[in-house]
Amino acid sequence: MEKRCPAIYGIIALFFLCAGAFSPGWIVIDTDKLFEDLGHDTSDGIVMYMGLFYFVAVGKDFRIVAGYGDFNSSSMLKIGLLEYQVEVILGIVLCLISIIMTFRYKKEGTNGGLVGIIVMYIIAGQ
User: Fold this and answer.
1) Transmembrane segments in this chain: where (predicted)?
2) Is 83 strand, coil or helix?
3) Which of 19, 31, 68, 126 would you call most buried, defined as having the most Cβ atoms within 10 angstroms of its Cβ?
């Protein structure tokens, strides 16, 4: 039971990390600098709902769904999309590693291993 409880919480945390990363709306940015050349009215700004691999941009008279490959690299760096992708993927990987380490943890060992697992869960959730 002692090993199962942290593992169950880790699996729940991994589920919520993945659900938030793969659904649009985790980050919302209000900008009109990215779509100046579309020919649409961007005077009220554009609201972008971003998932891990794609985004939805909603303006006054348009709605665009596109992947990050459609951005040029300078636009991605300007609003921090690359940093966002790296942080989310790193969090998911750390959560997976923590779950595996939780199942492999033996009670006879030192408590340092368990502290390392807990710290990695905390880092993954940041």
Assistant:
1) 7-29, 49-69, 81-103
2) helix
3) 68
3-class DSSP assignment, residue 5: helix
DSSP β-ladder status, 63-67 and 54-58: antiparallel
* Distance separating alpha carbons of residues 107 and 110, to the nearest angstrom: 8
Higher pLDDT, 122 or 93: 93
Angle at 106 between CA 100 and CA 111, to 5 degrees: 100
Q: Annotate 34-77 with DSSP letters as a single string.
A: TTGGGSS--TT--EEEE-SSEEEEE-SS-EEEEEGGGS-HHHHH
Alpha-carbon torsion angle 41, 69, 23, 26, nearest 10: -70
* Percent of the chain whose predicted confidence (pLDDT) is above 70: 62
Contact (CB, 8 A) for 14 and 96 = yes
pLDDT score, position 117 = 73
Q: Is 60 exceeded by the pLDDT of residue 6?
A: yes
